[in-house]
Amino acid sequence: MAPYESDDGTTAGEAEKVRAGRRKASRYAVPVAVVGVAAATIGIVPALADSGDPDLPEISARQLLEKVAASDVEQMSGTVKINTDLGLPDLGGLAGGLASGLGGAGGGHDSGSAADPSSRLMELATGTHTLRVAADGPDRQKVSLLENAAEYSVIHNGKDVWGYDSASDEVYHSTADGTARDHRKDRRSGEDFPATPGDFADEALKAADGTTSVTVDGTERIAGRDAYKLLIRPRQSGTTVGAVSIAVDAKTGTPLKFTLTPASGGAAVLDVGFTKVSFAAPAASTFDFTPPKGAEVTEGDDRGGHPDRTGRMPGKDLAGKYDGLRTIGEGWNTVAVLDTGGSGMPSGSAADGGLGGFLGSLGDHASGKFGSGTVFSTRLVNALITDDGKVYVGTVDKATLVRAADAAK
């Protein structure tokens, strides 16, 4: 089906309704959260579309945004396929260790448990993954990461949050903060994992302001369901984001697929979508969990440093850990700035085994009014680490990043 119509002039107000109607993503915003662990914020999925585009009634971008905002789905289950192509090598187990060493994506804690959700996030930063998800209202969600001959699960049931790693037979337990649940619908299907297309659609729709074009780009079939395609394109130059496509279930308004393609072209950086989905209530036993006999159980603090349910952005968590965190720029050219108070990268050369030399060999030298530093790049996120210990990071190209650093000086 051909695209319907451009509705760019009305998207700012409608996107605001979406923000009010859907909970802000509290942990996985881009680019702010990438300061903690850049790759971990970008996760996720190629969902397989069925053949043949459905013939659906025409709808405007305004109407489709309203449909997403009005969606009241609280019960669901399904399978999500996740594929991430940042242009990074396969991090494997090293990724989890790095996330843990950084205190998670702004969480500020390191339990040392293989079952701690924050220690597993970066596994989603590369390659293809399969998740099973289930949700029954704001107080019960489950996400299971399926691996070779093993499974990792995060279970939220009432006040309890459990993480279980079958490979190591380790369990992580923390207590959920339910203070925001009385007045806000929570559609996350897992306490800490960005597990469904809706988890990513929130942030993309939030960017739909005057810097963004939003249109309806036809229809498709996702996981056996009819869907409209919402196409989001930056109007600004300098961003590494080419376009975001969100497949919206025609009946329920639930995002079924989320695809982000880079401005440089080529394969999608992130593609998140359902291969199977049901909107029936999952069995209550789905959310039951008792630590297996003999398993090592680690008790975390209340909420264990994980994000609360009040819509708090990751930058506030990071600000508590680092001084001087702020953002500059607007729209798709927003850059997060972090002053570590240090002296930049460690010194040394790659030849003599120095860490600084090794890290420097992975990036590009940059200089300007800000001084000098090194730019580290992926297909989506660029980060500038200056010699005086400042970090600039965002979904912008190198030239825009350097200009931002110069302007902030």
Show unreliable segments.
Answer: 1-12, 19-51, 91-109, 179-192, 302-322, 347-355
Compute the gyration radius: what is it? 21 Å
The span between the termini is 50 Å
Give me the secondary-structure category: alpha+beta
Give the overall average pLDDT. Answer: 74
Q: Domains counted in the coordinates: how many?
A: 2
CATH homologous superfamily annotation of the largest domain: Lipoprotein localisation LolA/LolB/LppX
The percent of residues in helical segments reads: 10-25%
Tell me the CATH architecture of the largest domain.
Clam
Which outline best applies?
globular
Main β-sheet: number of strands, strand sense, barrel status? 13 strands, mixed
Beta strand %: 25-35%
Record field, number of beta strands: 19
CATH topological fold name of the largest domain: outer membrane lipoprotein receptor (LolB), chain A
Tally the helices: 8
Biggest sheet strand line-up: 1-8-9-10-11-12-2-3-4-5-6-7-13
Briefly summarize what is shown.
This protein is α+β, with helices and mostly antiparallel strands and 409 residues long. It has helices at residues 11-21, 34-37, 61-70, 92-101, 197-206, 314-321, 355-361, 398-408, and strands at 49-50, 75-84, 127-136, 140-147, 150-157, 160-165, 170-175, 212-222, 225-234, 241-249, 255-262, 270-278, 296-302, 326-328, 335-339, 364-368, 371-377, 382-386, 390-394.
